[in-house]
Write a structure and sequence with these properties.
Strand content: 5-15%
Structural class: alpha/beta
Radius of gyration: 19 Å
Largest sheet: 6 strands, parallel
Helix content: 40-55%
Distance between the termini: 21 Å
Order of helices and strands: EEEHHHEHEEHEHEHEHEHHEHHHH
Number of strands: 11
Strand order of the largest sheet: 6-7-8-9-10-11
Shape: globular
Amino acid sequence: MYKTKDGEEIFIIDGHVHLWDASPANQRNKHGEEFINCFYGYHTALSPKEELWPRAKFEKYGAETMYEDLFVKGYDDMAIFQPTYLKDFYKNGFNTLEQNASLGVRYPDRFIINGAFDPRDGEAGMDQLEEDVAKYKLKGVKLYTAEWKGDSKGYKLSDDHAKRFLEHAEKLGIKNIHVHKGPTILPLNRDAFDVADIDDAATSFPNLNFIVEHCGLPRLDDFCWIAVQEPNVYGGLAVALPFIHSRPGYFAHIMSELLFWLGEDRLLFGSDYGIWTPKWLVDQFMAFELPEDVRRETGVDLSLQAKKKILGLNAAKLYNIDIESMKLAHSISQSVAAE
């Protein structure tokens, strides 16, 4: 938990984390190596020097390291697993529901386990989603529209088969649809991450929440113009946040646009662990202020109240998390561990 200089506690829900295995032993082909190379490039380009990891650790850091980085060294109080299968690139998958659950079920007061679906899997995929909901009590899923599957190099949420899955997910009680709409990753296709299909999906399914991960970057304008007219569209700040260190002016532009168009109630913090760790992101985010000229032009400010919403309150609302109850549970867990 983060404490301000005045001693105020801020409950932090990290909306975007993974427990991946990109080790050479798990790489199915050259694309597995290309994919993790691209991730590592983001890590080395946007992280502070003191936060850089060696390549071997980055490829497979493991459950214990993850828990330590998020909840012991880091300020996270809870974190949301977002799976990314990529079984065409990795023998056992890159970051599957089962991998994440191996840690998540051990710490149910720390992790929210999200599932995934791919509409190209047809009826078998629907059956699998039902099984996953029954087993893990899923409240959300992560969709990766640019994932390769055989001869297919992606799909759109506006496709008929995707709409069938969204309808099925809603019937199963899944409310939160996290969709990767950010920078491309080699060898995936940039156009398959385009944000345009969010518009149709959000209109067609007004009872679902569409959390656009990476807030559409590099298509920030397109995302904002869609989100401003779709009240059930949210922006996930993973990938945007590291620019606070390497490009603070660019980060100020991103945040001012998001606050202007979406407001402070529809933005969610995400570290994108293990590309980045949450401690330095939270430290720099809490210290960050929008430049005066940006505030004057846009009429928005990144106030303490806005930061509290972004860091945890907004995600708590989406996932029906009782923060005071969670604080108590964590306090009891820590007391037991200390005995």
